[in-house]
Amino acid sequence: MDLFGDLPEPDHIKDSVICHDHTASGVSSDIDKQGNKRRLLEECEERDLEEKRKKNEESEKASQNYAYILKGYVADRQGEREDMQDAHVLIDDFLQHIPGLHNSIHRLALYAVFDGHGGVRASRFASQHLHNNLRDKFPKGDITQVEKEIKRIFIDAFKKTDEDFLKEATKNKPSWKDGTTAVVVLAINDTLYIANLGDSKAVLCRFKDGEQRCVGIPLTTDHSPSLYEERMRIQKAGGNVREGRVMGVLEVARSIGDGPYKNHGVTCIPDIKRCQLTDNDRYLMIACDGLWKSYSVDESIQYVNKILEDKNLQSSGKKSEKDIKFDAVCNKLANAAVLRLSGDNVTVIVVDIHKRQ
Fold this sequence. Notes:
Blueprint: H1 10-21, H2 27-63, E1 68-77, E2 86-91, E3 108-117, H3 121-137, H4 143-171, E4 179-180, E5 182-188, E6 191-197, E7 201-208, E8 213-218, H5 228-236, E9 241-242, E10 245-246, E11 256-257, E12 271-276, E13 281-287, H6 289-292, H7 297-308, H8 321-339, E14 346-355
């Protein structure tokens, strides 16, 4: 959309005015031209300011059309592994990455954790490309259209990420054998859409009025090869499950990458769930299995809440009290998982959820 109507951009106006100067004659004519140039430039500056004011008003108006503020925090630890095979994505304002969306889409946020195995390449590739594939496939229709298409969008984005990585893997000799789990949470206005592969988890902390306590609501399903549905798919594809692993080796039945196992029933099609935020929601926790090997969902909720209730953690310098507490939550939870000898990389994202005042 041309922000200046029929007028060119300000820089072009300068150029066109300068060109006209060559046709001017006489001192008075030059003065008139200079005055015209100044007026045109002033008009353009006024239009710029007006456009910025309108954009700010639109942004403020849009922000009032969702009820909950989201802010993400993250910490990761290498643990006892030789290298760090986890990767993550944290984008509180994903909306700015997708211009031209329908005005019924007021907020997008995206959080993801990738737990690599067999190397670092699959997890890093997924963290660099999957959210961009989501961006490229995001529909331009209104929120109703987006809700209808969100499952297809996720599946297409996961498939493209997997296909592109496997192409890269086969270009190398020997071929890369890396793979990665994935859990992606996309917030659209006040609704969470969760897509996952493998055994990383997303958990929502929600206060239960009847029980007067916070409980953890699982938003993902682990894809163990031992589960009936997963095992049947693997066996139909000609693979087998031994000691809870695909072909006796791979611990997950769904992943990005893992080229040698794709012909044995390992798929990149994620499970996709939907969750509407409520006034009782406190935070969202997304972590790889390095945390869940050490902490159950209930234990992790209790641990986080204890830190958030700590009166000794107060604001200092540029950080608010809330920032300090959630930073502490991520770091202490990751450290505690390592100290419990999980023997794995640990990545924890915690997303604060609070109602707009």
